[in-house]
User: Fold Acid-resistance membrane protein from Enterococcus phoeniculicola ATCC BAA-412.
Amino acid sequence: MEAFFKQFQKYAILRGIAYTLVGIFALTNPGVFFKAIIYFIAGYFVLMGIINCLAARKLHKETGSYGFSMASGLFFFLLAVIVLFFSKAILSIIPFFLGLLVVVNGLSQLLQALNTPKGKGLWLIFSIIMLAAGLILMFNPFKTLLVVCQVFGVLLIVNGLSELVNYFQLRKLYR
Assistant:
């Protein structure tokens, strides 16, 4: 178990720097960050397509059959094209559905608060805040998405700085 922690701690400084840099990028350039995410997802699908097609080619040389790998490789290529072609639609739909989930959760919380005999005040306030946040997500998706991205950036920065602090604290333990 100690070996696992040593290995994990070994890369903590790299994780901390990466989280902090990505967090700063997301915080300062949320629109560009989301476009980069789309390209990253499309790139991942292309990479998976290449891997599957190469595996299919190898299988074809060995057995004369392409198996399922060729179909899945072509499917990944198709997914990459779909993600790139419909990137704006994908980005605009995500906040709407997140908002819908938050509204449903807020309504559920509101009903629970109204049916609770004691301690209604905080539950009512919380459920109203949830409803308002969900409606804002649903009806102002792009600006909300940018704010969510910036909050994500702040969380990454905090996580990255935490990794760096832990690295220097734990370095003394595992020398």
In short: The chain has one domain: 2-173.
